[in-house]
């Protein structure tokens, strides 16, 4: 995963509805859900849900498969794990990374 992919994924998750949808798909697991089930369970209007699912799919965080007449959406766990791995490796290198206050930095 490169920096551009990380930014796209984080931007997609930085919206209340998309985060709710993604969390619901993660909890649901590999079986996934149809938009109708998500609409009923989350109370999100169908057109709004469609827009946000498209944004999550564009970011690679969800996949969509047609099964008969239904669309089944699933969390892209490989992409989610790659995002978490990138953040861990490149932001904190797996260690605590709290900023240390420095008198010199703020002129104190």
Quickly list its features.
mainly alpha; Arc Repressor Mutant, subunit A; two-stranded antiparallel ribbon; 6 helices; 2 strands; elongated
Tell me what the structure shows.
The structure is a single chain. Helix content is 60%, strand content 11%. It has 108 residues and is mainly alpha-helical. It has one domain (3-92): Winged helix-like DNA-binding domain superfamily/Winged helix DNA-binding domain (Arc Repressor Mutant, subunit A). A two-stranded antiparallel ribbon has the order 1-2. A hairpin with a 2-residue loop joins strand 1 and strand 2. It is elongated, with a radius of gyration of 18 Å. The model is unreliable at 103-108 (pLDDT under 50).
Question: Secondary-structure blueprint of this entry?
Answer:
Layout: H1 3-13, H2 16-28, H3 35-42, H4 46-58, E1 62-67, E2 70-75, H5 77-92, H6 103-106
Antiparallel strand pairs: 1-2
Helix pairs in contact: 2-4
In brief:
This protein has a single domain (3-92), classed as Arc Repressor Mutant, subunit A (Orthogonal Bundle). The model is unreliable at 103-108 (pLDDT under 50).
Summed up, the domain count is 1
Count of alpha and pi helical runs: 6
End-to-end separation = 40 Å
Any idea of the CATH topology? Arc Repressor Mutant, subunit A
Strand content: 5-15%
* Backbone shape: elongated
Could you state the CATH homologous superfamily?
Winged helix-like DNA-binding domain superfamily/Winged helix DNA-binding domain
CATH class identity = Mainly Alpha
Helix/strand-derived class?
A: mainly alpha
Computed over alpha carbons, the radius of gyration is 18 Å
H/E element order: HHHHEEHH
What average pLDDT do the residues reach? 88
Strand order, largest beta sheet: 1-2
**Helical proportion, percent range:** 55-70%
Number of strands: 2
Low-confidence stretches: 103-108
Q: Supply the CATH architecture.
A: Orthogonal Bundle
């Amino acid at each position: 995963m490169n920096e551009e992919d990380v930014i796209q994924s984080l931007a997609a998750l930085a919206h209340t509805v998309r985060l709710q949808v993604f969390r619901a798909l993660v909890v649901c697991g590999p079986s996934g859900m149809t938009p109708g089930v998500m609409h009923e369970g989350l109370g999100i209007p169908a057109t709004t849900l469609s827009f946000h699912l498209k944004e999550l799919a564009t970011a690679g965080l969800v996949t969509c498969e047609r099964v008969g007449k239904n669309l089944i959406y699933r969390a892209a766990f490989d992409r989610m794990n790659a995002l978490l791995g990138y953040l861990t490796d490149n932001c904190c290198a797996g260690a605590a990374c709290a900023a240390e206050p420095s008198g010199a930095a703020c002129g104190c």
